[in-house]
């Protein structure tokens, strides 16, 4: 459902996301958050941009 991630009434986050992308993703993918909170992470994880590697609409 679109509104799980997007706010149809507007948002301050890019792409009318309800929050920062990684926060939205971790709402459903709790195990991923535990794995990604590490000392060394690649840039998309640090910046919270999961869609660099993953297609959320797939």
- What distance lies between the first and last C-alpha atoms, to the nearest angstrom? 12 Å
Strand content: under 5%
What is the H/E order? Answer: HHH
What spatial form do the alpha-carbon principal axes imply?
globular
What labels would you give this structure?
58 residues; mainly alpha
Account of the 3D structure:
With 58 residues, the protein is mostly helical. The chain has one domain. It is built from 3 helices and no strands. The protein has helices spanning 21-28, 30-36, 43-47. Helix 1 packs across helix 2. The radius of gyration is 12 Å and the shape is globular. It starts with 20 loop residues before the first helix and ends in an 11-residue tail after the last helix. The mean pLDDT is 87.
């Amino acid at each position: 459902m679109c509104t799980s991630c997007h706010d149809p009434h507007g948002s301050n986050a890019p792409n009318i996301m309800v929050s920062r992308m990684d926060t939205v993703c971790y709402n459903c993918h709790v195990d991923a958050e535990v794995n990604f909170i590490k000392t060394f992470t690649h840039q998309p994880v640090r910046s919270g941009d999961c869609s660099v590697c993953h297609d959320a609409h797939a």
